[in-house]
């Protein structure tokens, strides 16, 4: 899988990324999270994440998930109903931040 066409990259410091990862993991563990993800996909289509993605959650109208970089560092992603995908990354991983099928 190539870099998504509508990819946005937001650079954050590592503590902010870790905080966001913790929030996504917390919501993913809540009852009903999987059902909300299924409903989001039914309404908006697939986010095109690879099988390595995990901790899918819906926050408002946004589907969020976690995905590792090739070096194993996990980054949070947001998929929007219009097909735009945003990755939250630190400067060190900005070039590796999008997911690639079979490249990891």
Encode the helix/strand succession as letters. EHHEEEE
Q: How many strands in all?
A: 5
Distance between the termini: 11 Å
Largest beta-sheet characterization = 5 strands, mixed
Global structural class: alpha+beta
Number of helices, counting only DSSP H or I runs of 4 residues or more: 2
- Could you tell me the radius of gyration in angstroms? 13 Å
Given the C-alpha coordinates, what overall shape results?
globular
Low-confidence stretches: none
Query: What's the rounded overall pLDDT mean?
Result: 86
How is the largest sheet built, in terms of strand order?
1-5-4-3-2
Strand residues, percent: 25-35%
Helix content: 25-40%
């Amino acid at each position: 899988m190539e870099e998504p066409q509508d990819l946005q990259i937001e650079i954050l410091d590592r503590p902010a990324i870790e905080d966001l990862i913790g929030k996504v993991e917390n919501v993913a563990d809540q009852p009903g999270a999987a059902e909300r993800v299924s409903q989001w996909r039914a309404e908006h289509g697939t986010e095109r994440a690879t099988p390595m993605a995990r901790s899918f959650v819906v926050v408002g109208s946004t589907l969020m998930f976690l995905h590792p970089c090739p070096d194993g560092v996990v980054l949070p992603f947001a998929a929007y109903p219009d097909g735009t995908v945003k990755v939250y990354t630190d400067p060190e991983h900005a070039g590796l931040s999008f997911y690639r099928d079979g490249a990891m």
